[in-house]
Amino acid sequence: MAPTVLIVDDALFMRMMIRDILSKDGFEVVGEAENGVEAVERFKEVKPDLVTMDIVMPEMDGIEAVKQIMKFDPNARILMCSAMGQQPLVVEALEAGAKDFIIKPFQPSKVIEAVEKALKD
Amino acid sequence: MQESRGLSPLQLDALREVGNIGSGNAAVALSTMVDKKVLLSVPRASLVPLVKVSDLVGGAETPVVGVYLHISGDASGSMLLLLADSSAAELAHLMVADPEEELTTVEQSALQETGSILAGSYLNALSQMTGILLRPSVPGFAMDMAGAIIDFILVEISQSEDYVLVIETEFDISQHKIRGHLILFPDLGSLDIILGRLGVSG
Predict the structure, then answer these.
(1) Per the structure, how many domains does chain B have?
(2) What is the pTM of this model?
(3) Which of A66, A119, B105, B125 is deepest in the core (most CB within 10 A)?
(4) For this chain's UniProt record, which GO biological process terms are given (chain B) (predicted)?
(5) Looking at CA atoms only, how far is residue A121 from chain B in angstroms?
């Protein structure tokens, strides 16, 4: 069975791009969310194998969403996808429970590599 | 008040270097996004009277697309990506294959995300250089005259000031006639922190 993914990003364009990259490589995108609040709700509904998570979003940012998802499911696998590559934020996201962090913009191959690695952990 | 805030040539030079490193990183990001060569101008750093800021980008009447965001964290300010209408359309077409002439929702989202990623890369470099955390807000998007967009941003940051510190770089994807401006407006209140971290406090 194809691994299932929930894509979280406030930009429609970026959700389309990530969906495209993952679908082409055989992943099943089971949901999308455009802010942290929606991400937590969707996660509980669809229980995906992996979440790609943006950081800067309205309503609730991605790091807070990671914390809430990890509280609900300590085994959740979350991959941060953000343009904000500043060290303190990367550390904060990883401490909150994210598996890895990729910095936008990214090459499709990097996304696949990071997704596969996060799923193996 | 302005005189007391006079920046030394060394300080202005350090701020230009902020522009250089920030926009350099942003240009790499843009180049990755569109898979084209991106050229940069030499950055400008200066205290500019509020009424003159839009002159830097071709005049207040120029129709533009603007993506702007606020910065909070250890230092505050604003960041603006400005593209002339024709450049915005070209850039959108490079990212989203769409025959429509009007900007579609997806193309607007692509431009907004471009602003967000360019600002993110710029601030990543600046953060690495100074060791301070700079958090961008969710980006705003506007299609208007340059003057209207700049006024909107300056109202929030300038308050009682008549001058604003502008660190500006022009970029260029020449084979596609795309030109734009990336502008950082550090809040004057945050200037001491930034200059201190750059080792050139007054």
Answers:
(1) 1
(2) 0.89
(3) A66
(4) chemotaxis
(5) 28
